[in-house]
Amino acid sequence: PADQDWEDFLLEFEDEPKPQRSVRCSPAPGPFRPCLHLLGSWMIRGGVWLIAAISLVSNSLVVLSVFLSPLSSVTPPKLLIGLLALVNGLMGVWSGWLAAVDAWTFGSFWRFGVKWDSSFLCRLSGFLCLFASQTGLFLLTAAALERCLWSGAAVRSDRPDGSSGCLLTPPAVRLSICVCFLLGVAVSLPPVITGNTSTSFCLPLPSSSSSLAFAVSLVLFDSLCFLIMTLAYIRLYCRSNKAPPTSDEEVALTRHVAWLLFSDCLLYLPVASLSFSSLLRLPVAGPEAAKGILLLVAPLPACINPLLYLLFNPLAREELAALTTHTCTGGATKRRGAAGGEPLDLTCDEDAEKQSCDSTQ
Question: Which chain regions cross the lipid bilayer (predicted)?
Fold first, then answer.
């Protein structure tokens, strides 16, 4: 009987409902104001992690191939491409930042949401995203104009290097780079100063008249940049038959900038459509679709731009191969020196051989 009573007690205890802790967020949560998870669905979460990884790795390879490869001479177009990769890497840092915050607050974002939205780190995250996207667009515009001016100088001088073009001097290119970075800072600072972020992703989405005016002016300015780049390349291709034969490197760089312009323009169309639909209050895309565009489509140029250079530009493969060989050779030389061996000085041997031949003659 005692065993029967104990079994009945256990059954009654198991039948009692266990208290469940329910979380109620106020105001009502949504795609841009999450309650439990910052990134929401696993598809967006996986996409953000993938974008961060590809962007950081591929842009790092482009920067190494442009600035550190022994075969690479940093000409004005390659300088612009290398800096574009450096800025695109910042977009990968932003995506990785959001992914890290989502992982840290997984399932309990409601505990940190208010602090995160009003924190300096959130503002810095928004600044990083805006600065990377806008400065990358300005650098791409400068690269397209540089290619157009280089082609015009080559036609006028009948020389493939275009050395007679006064607008193509390295100081002028450096000045244009400084202007691009200053414009990027000027465009990205207002949301940081005013704290004008209406989402947990720290982006200045239109929620008031001032933020709406800022978003619209930004979209119009970006559209003007794409229009300038398109007109510059149309002019370049219209006079390509008049230009003298050019080197393979210049042709590859011109083609690469054209691919960048085409891909970035295609990826910018959904972002521009989303901005104009918000301006006109048209239900073109729901909140979930808008969230996917901002987190997955807007950062895509930071992944595609370096991949286009690494996969379809023969210069990149040669530069990376030379950098790898140089690094391995340098490491082997250091190990040989540490072991007490003396590395062979091929230059001295060649000079001695030439001197002996001259003396024989």
Answer: 48-68, 80-104, 124-145, 166-193, 213-236, 257-280, 292-312
